UniProtKB/TrEMBL annotation, chain A:
Keywords, alphabetical: Cytoplasm, Fatty acid biosynthesis, Fatty acid metabolism, Lipid biosynthesis, Lipid metabolism, Phosphopantetheine, Phosphoprotein
GO CC terms: cytosol; membrane
Protein purpose: Carrier of the growing fatty acid chain in fatty acid biosynthesis.
Chief location: cytoplasm
Alphabetical GO biological process terms: lipid A biosynthetic process
Annotated source species: Conexibacter arvalis
Name of this chain's protein: Acyl carrier protein
Entry similarity comment: Belongs to the acyl carrier protein (ACP) family.
O-(pantetheine 4'-phosphoryl)serine sites (modified residues): S40
Start and end residues of each Carrier domain: 4-80
Length: 81, 250
């Protein structure tokens, strides 16, 4: 399983989110999922990627509070530590 | 094999029908194969019958594979999906048909009668649905059809466990349908009434009195409805429960 350095997590999450539709330049730490048109099903897909890459299991309640790209990155980094 | 006008499938993918060695499941596997889907024919006890279904499909020019084991066991279910994915691609049609009955008036239904019926009829259907959905979301296409029962909609003394499992399927169908609708994945239920199968062979003529059509339905009549719900043409039908009951629940 890959080491979850903050840089690695950020890079993979940004890449995954961009694959769901938005231009990769738009996917910044402060961008909200709403602005990026990333919906709850996209986040389910993201959770699967995160689990496969780093073994971090995100449940529905964990995902509820996520508003921005930075929120997701920080959560995964904290959980993987 | 002639293509039905409801045909879905120049898509690369396949169908899984649980409990398909006989009855409604077998009839459904055959019509989905006729529509061009490679089909996983799930079975628990009826290995020879499942192989016969596969042979019949192959003889008609279709593709199918028999998949044995108890779908109430998550590992078995997962192995079915993996086998189909490796051989035919994404499971784009899932028909949750495997079901059991352990009848008795409520005071006589033991804990294990309750648990076994809920686990197989509802629990396995949920877990199969959960396993099927992520690849369907990625494919932006999927069809899940849950075989419920008219007993999930109206009373039938002696089947509290069965009724609870089937009513549960109807509720699960609606909510999962709403969750995934925006990705082109539909989830529907078919609620058969009295259908002439091995599973109902012990039921006598008494029940026919409440069937306005005054005859039992056939597995093929149920399969025809599943075939429609699995087709492209049914893309705007989701969260629905289609009764196939000769008017029993009307």
């Amino acid at each position: 399983m890959a080491t979850a350095t903050p840089e690695a997590v950020e890079s993979r999450i940004v890449e995954a989110l961009a694959s769901f539709g938005p231009d990769i330049e738009q996917v910044t730490r402060t961008a909200t999922f709403e602005e990026l048109d990333i919906d709850s099903l996209d986040l389910v897909e993201l959770a699967q990627i995160v689990e496969d890459e780093w073994g971090v299991e995100l449940k529905g309640d964990d995902m509820k509070g996520l508003k921005t790209v930075g929120d997701a990155i920080d959560l995964v980094v904290a959980r993987a530590a | 094999m002639g293509r039905n006008p409801l045909s879905t499938t120049d898509r690369r993918g396949c169908a899984l029908v649980t409990g398909a060695s006989r009855g409604i499941g077998a009839a459904t596997a055959k019509v989905l194969a006729a529509d061009g889907w490679p089909v996983g024919v799930g079975y628990n006890s009826g290995a020879a019958e499942a192989e016969a279904v596969v042979k019949e499909i192959e003889a008609a020019g279709g593709r199918a594979v028999a998949l044995g084991g108890d779908v109430a066991d998550t590992a078995v279910l997962d192995a079915h999906f993996t086998a189909l994915e490796e051989r035919f691609g994404t499971v784009l049609v899932l028909v949750n048909n495997a079901g059991v009955r352990r009848d008795g008036l409520s005071p006589q239904i033991k804990d294990d009668d309750w648990a076994a019926v809920l686990e197989t009829n509802l629990g396995a259907a949920f877990r199969a649905t959960r396993r099927a959905i992520p690849p369907m979301l990625k494919a932006r296409h999927g069809r899940i059809v849950n075989i419920a029962s008219v007993v999930g909609l109206r009373a039938n003394p002696g089947q509290a466990n069965y009724a609870a499992s089937k009513a549960g399927l109807v509720g699960m169908t609606k909510t999962v349908a709403a969750e995934v609708a925006r990705r082109g994945v539909t989830v529907n239920a078919v609620a058969p009434g009295l259908i002439a199968t091995d599973m109902t062979a012990d039921l006598d003529g008494e029940l026919l009195k409440v069937v306005p059509a005054r005859r039992p339905g056939t597995p093929e009549e149920v399969a025809a409805c599943v075939r429609f719900l699995a087709s492209d043409e049914a893309g705007y039908v989701t969260g629905a429960t289609l009764t196939v009951d000769g008017g029993m629940s009307a």
